[in-house]
Amino acid sequence: MEQNKKSTMALLALAVSAFAIGTTEFISVGLLPLIAEDLHIALTTAGLTVTLYALGVTFGAPVLTSLTSTVSRKTLLLWIMTVFIIGNLLAATAGSVAVLLIARIVSALAHGVFMSIGSTIAADLVPVNRRASAIALMFSGLTVATVTGVPLGTYLGQQLGWRAAFFAIAAVGVLALIANLVLVSAKLRRGTKTKLAVQLKLVASPRLLLALAMTALGYGGTFVVFTYLSPLLHDIAGFQESTVALILLVYGIAIAIGNVIGGRAANRKPSKALLIMFLAQAVVLFVLMFTAPFKVAGLITIFSLGLLAFMSVPGLQIYVVQLAEQFAPEAKDVASAFNIAAFNAGIAIGASLGGFVTDHLGLIHTTWVGGLMVLGAVGLTAWSRSLEKSAQRQQQSHQPQTQPLGGLSQ
Q1: pTM of the model
Q2: Which residue has the higher pLDDT, 49 or 90?
Q3: Dihedral sign, Cα of residue 396, residue 400, residue 403, residue 405
């Protein structure tokens, strides 16, 4: 019981870190006009604070996770949060767009490594049958940040200036640093040096590449709509701006619930759970096309989308880790980093696609386009499950039949 309590507290410390990191990832979206006005730059130039951050995570996660593989996990965790705090303080005091962009890249590099090792630390803190739930608890900080931390940070920036939002995020980072220092055990396993040949083995593994594609399409598909959910609620459904803020809060609660459900569902058979989740998610996105103009029906559909939006996250992460354990066990952390990169690539693809669709077809069409993207993940997941079952049958056929007569069949 005492060990379970310690594990839970350590997971909560990781969740606070994820909250800070998740907030800073999307915070500049709401602050773009303020940043552009204050630094006397074009809005599109200010938009580089989003683009370069995503690229920093996508490319920095696998590289830095590999380079720091032999560092003590707790030591690395503390260094990550220190760099994160420095990055946000640098952003808050930036006098030019160049310094601000450098600060965003610094924060993004910390983000990438944290999300990579955070998942494996969370998994190591609990028994094997609770790993997906542990990862879900860690990721809950990220999901809550996406909907609550970002609006609160944006509101703070609007009231006190955009720099205040970055100062506040740095303060949460300090809190997370202290929580990790006090609550996370120093006895975590030490990472192992991953050779280049092993990393190439990951990239060359069709099963792992398939799983990464599942992550990008399945997770990214929701962002086609999620990126433009506020204008969708305002322009299509006809809700007032004050009501939209309340709906986004409810959406955030749905995300938190869905994240926990997803973790529990994926504990035993992640690929089966993912197939069901993606299929449901695609259906809800297609349905939203028809219900969005109607307030009650639209709200029900959007709440359902919130439940499903991040439900697949723990399952995707644990599935990739499981595949890495099977095909390249010495590169488990690096595989996790590749999946974090796939998450961010999915966000970038989904958001960009959503912008393109909004400009050329209209807001309402982001729904079915997002549905098609997730439907692609359904196909890839079904394919992955087929390969998984085929491998299991082949393995069973090569096992010696030593079971005594009358024994139970497996």
Answers
A1: 0.74
A2: 90
A3: positive
